[in-house]
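Entry 14. Ran structure prediction on the chain below.
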Amino acid sequence: MLQTHINKHIEALIFSSVQSISVQEIILALNAVFEEEVIENQVFESIDHIKEKYGVENFAIELVNLNNGYQFLTKKEYHETVNQLQLHRSKKKLSQAAMETLAIIAYRQPITKLEIEQIRGVNSDYSVQRLLEKELISIEGKAETPGRPILYSTSPLFMDYFGLNNLTQLPQLKDIAKEENTVGENAE
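Output, structure tokens:
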């Protein structure tokens, strides 16, 4: 089987995937279609070729490695233009309450709804439900505490949506806290 033939199929798979697609998913899809077995090295060779192809100035998109998979994204110089479109579609925007809930889940996962509500100080039923509907969080299982409450965690779509490969890339509190918000003298 020709590598250029595989390249086109892999490009089509990545293009058609709403979320990042892993190398294992690509191999499964290709092996279901082709008689010859496609191996991991062939997929990585194709991915390198596709990255090179879209790396030139002629294209407004590029192939990016996200969340242990690959996805086509707009190049950084076009982010402001795309952002304008997103502003017009802000109906799908998350509310402040949903963003607070999502941040708590991202940093404290897996976490129960009671724990979320204790941190926020208000009922979070609606926010948790909206985040589940938008598939930004998922049910991780049940806690081993009395009543066995549901545990929530962020989903792979959360990783794609915020452009993260893993949770260690989340901003740390020290990165976002302003020095003017400190109390007392700084010790040197």
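The chain has a mean pLDDT of 87. Will compare against last week's run tomorrow.
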